[in-house]
Amino acid sequence: MAQRTPSAPKISSRTLKKRLGMVISVLGLLVFLLGATPQLFGLDRSPVVGFVQIGVFSLGLGFLALGGYFTLDALWRDTPKNIAADIGIRLVGTGYVIAITSGLADVFGLGTRPLPSVPFFGYWQGAGVLIGQLIMIVGFVMFSPYWARRPKPSKQKKRR
After folding, report:
1. pTM of the predicted model, to two decimals?
2. What is the per-residue DSSP string for the chain?
3. Domain extents for the chain?
């Protein structure tokens, strides 16, 4: 008699999207930490925050936003998204743009030091990045499906 080998359980595309989103988010967090605090990884060689560090933590922040979008989008299931969710995901993108623009202000020519000098990450740029991150958090909260109103089953009495 031949033995049956158990088959692997089927994984839905929604579950794969959640897992992919979480993996991208964790990788984004690691890249963000590498750019923001390289001394955690033993890579800090300069007392100032330079262009490469700003670029790396901006890239990590982008991966965090992308992974968060994939994960929260998979949580909506087949429910149509409401207007608050649409506004929320746009706020995530807007916050990311604010964070990048604030972080790279000297490179774009918007900062206190013109481009021939070394890019400088100062107090106002840090505050701009933080404000961008806070806007992203508000957007993710608005995009969360748990805030959506679901119709409650009606409790009508049956008539005889």
Report:
1. 0.78
2. -PPPPPPPPP--HHHHHHHHHHHHHHHHHHHHHHHH-GGGGT----SS--HHHHHHHHHHHHHHHHHHHHHHHHHTTTSPP-HHHHHHHHHHHHHHHHHHHHHTHHHHT-SSS-TTS-----HHHHHHHHHHHHHHHHHHHHH-GGGS--PPPP-PPPP-
3. 15-147
Q: Which amino acid is at 124?
A: W
Instruction: Determine the Cα–Cα distance for residues 144 and 88; give it in Å rounded to an integer.
Output: 8
CB 30 within 8 A of CB 60: yes
Q: Are 92 and 65 in contact (CB under 8 A)?
A: yes
pLDDT tens column, 122-153: 788 889 999 999 999 999 999 998 866 666 66
Tokens of residue 110, six digits:
């918007």
Cα separation values, 159 from 54, 153, 156, Å: 68, 17, 9
Residue that has been written with the tokens 């807007």 in this structure:
94
Note the pLDDT tens digit of each residue in 5-24.
Answer: 777 677 777 888 889 999 99
